[in-house]
Amino acid sequence: MSGPLLEARGLTLAFGGVRAADGIDLEVAHGEILAIIGPNGAGKTTFINMVSGYLRPRAGSIRFEGREITGLPPRRIVRLGIARSFQIPQLFAEHRVIENVALHLAARDGFWAPFRPLLSPARRAEALAILDDLELARLAEARADTLDEGARKLVDIAMALALRPRLLLMDEPTSGVAAAEKHAIMARLVAALRRTSVTAVFVEHDMEVVARHADRVAVWSQGRILAEGPPEAVLADPSVRREVIGVEGTAC
Amino acid sequence: MRRYLPVAAAVALLLLLAVLQPWLRFVLTIALSTGLAVLGIAMLLRAGQVSFGHALYVAAGAYAVAFARPHLGEGLLLLLLATLVGTLLGLLVGLFVARYRDIFFGMLNLAFSMVAWSLLEKLYGLTRGTDGIRVARPMLLGFALEGAAWEWALLLAALAAALLAGALVARYLASPAGSALGAIKTRETRLEFAGVSARRVLLQAYVVSAGLAGLGGAFVALATLHVTPLLAYWTHSGELVFVAILGGTGNVLGPFLGAVVFELVRVHAAASFPDAWQMILGLVLLAIILTAARGLVGLLDDLAARLGRRG
Question: Please, are residues B24 and B224 in contact by the beta-carbon 8 Å criterion?
C-alpha cells in the first residue's frame, strides 16, 4: 500500500485560551512505532483524542488509509481499524480480566450472537494469548477492580490489542508500571506489534523507553510539533532537551 | 450436573407446596408470573439501570389476553400473543428510553407506565376503566379444563415458561451482548471505543425484559381471569423492583425465588396482620438489604460455599 497509514493536516483545537492543537501536521507510516513526547499540556493526549474520535478538531483533516475520518464518532473509527488505550485505564471493573479482553475480541465479530458464550473455547484461547503477550496470563481470572495500577494499564492495552487494529494509539502505556518491568513489557509489546504488523503511536514521558523502543519521535510543544525524527537525533537536539527533557528531568 | 441441582430442588419444593396446600397453586402461579417480569428487571439491573415502569408491560400482556380472548380460545396462543405485544411495545418505548441512564431512565419508564395506567382508566368504552375486563377461561392445548385440573395446568405452564425463560436468559447473559450489560454499569464509554453501541446493548435487553413482563402479565390474566388498570400502576412497578432486590440478580434463579418468597410472605402477612402486611414486607426487604446485599440467591450461594468447605 502506498502513502502513509495515518495523515493529519493542520489540526487545530483550543480549550478556552489554551491551544491544544495549533496546526498539527503528522504522517505515520505503515508498520512504524512512533513516540510522542513533550511537556504536560502540550496537546499530546488531545492528538490521540482527535484521531480516536473523542474530540473533533476545529479545523484540519485526519485521513486513515487515505480515507477521511475527521469528526467520525469513536465507534466508527474503531471499526475502520484504529484502537486506543487510555492514560487512566478504562476497564470493566466488575468483569474478570479475561472477560475484558474477550469482550473486545467479540466486538470484532459474533458480538450479537445471543446464545454463544463470551468465553467460548476459541475466544478464551485467543484472549489468553493476548494476555500472555503482556505477561498478564496469570491475572486472567482476577476481577479487574482488584488489579494494581500497572496491571490495569497493561490490561487496558490488551483490550485495545484484542480489537486487532491496524493502528494502535497508546497514551502513556508504561506509566504506573514498575520501573524494573517497564522495558521487558515494552519489548514484548513491541515484538507483538511487529509480529502482527500493527502500527503504533504512543505518548511517553520516559525518555529511555522512547530511545529503546520507538522508531521515530515527534516532539510536541504548545500544540505544535517542535521536532521529529529518529530517537537518537531528536533526543540529542538541544532545543528538545531544553523544552522536554529539562522539564521532565529524566534525561537519557 | 451440579449447577442444575438448585433449580431441581426449587422445582421439587414448589410442586410439593402445591400438592400439600391446594390453595397455594394460585399463589405460586402468580409468583412465577411475577418472577418472569422480575427476570427482565434483573437483566436491566445488571446494566445498573432501574426501571420503575415495567408494570406497563405486565399490563400490556394482561390486556392483550383480555382483548384477544373473545377471538382466540387457545391459552398457549394467548400467551404467545401477550409476549409479542410486550416485546413490540418494549421496542417502541425502548428506542426512546435506552438513550437515558440512571434516574432519567427510571423516571421515563415510570412516566410511560403512568400514561398507560391513566389511558386504561379513562378510555372506559374500550377498557371498562377501573372495573376492568373479565377474561373467559380459555382452553389449554385444546383441553377445556375446570377447577383443580385448570389450576394445575396453569401452574405447570407457568413453571415451564419460567424454566424456559430462565435457561434462555442465562445463556444470553453469558453471551457477549449479555455480558456487556455489566460493562454499561462500570464503563460505558469503553464499549464505544470497542466499536460496540452501548445503546443497542441496553435496548436489546430492554426488549427482552418487556417481552418477559408481557408473558408474566398473560399468566396473571389467566390466573385471575380479570384485568384492571392497577396492573400498570406505579406501585406494581415498584413491587417488581422490590422482588428483584429481594431475590438477587446474581443468577436467573433469584427473581423466581424472590417472587415466591414475596408472594408467600404477602399472603401470610395479609392473613395474619391485615393492617400491617406492607410493613412486614418492608422489614423483610430491609433485613435482606442489610444482611445480604446480593439477595436471597446470594444468601444461598454463601450457604452452599460454607457447606462445601465443610464437606
Answer: no
List the CATH number of the domain containing B262.
Answer: 1.10.3470
CATH code where residue A68 lies: 3.40.50.300
Q: Which residues of B touch A91 (CB under 8 A)?
A: 186-187, 190
Q: For residue B119, what are the domain limits?
A: 2-310
Dist CA A13 CA B20 (whole Å): 74
Q: Tens digit of pLDDT for each residue in A95-118?
A: 999 999 999 999 998 899 899 999
ipTM comes to 0.89
Cell output for B114: 403512568
How far, in Å, CA of A216 to CA of A225, rounded?
13
Q: Count how many domains chain B has.
A: 1
Write down the residue that cell numbers 459474533 correspond to.
Answer: A110
Grouping H, G, I as helix, E, B as strand and the rest as coil, residue A115 is: coil
pTM across the whole model: 0.91
* Domain count for chain A: 1
Burial of B179 (0-12, 13-18, 19+ CB in 10 A): buried
A230 touches chain B (CB under 8 A): no
Residues of A in contact with B191 (CB under 8 A): 103
A106 touches B at CB < 8 Å = yes
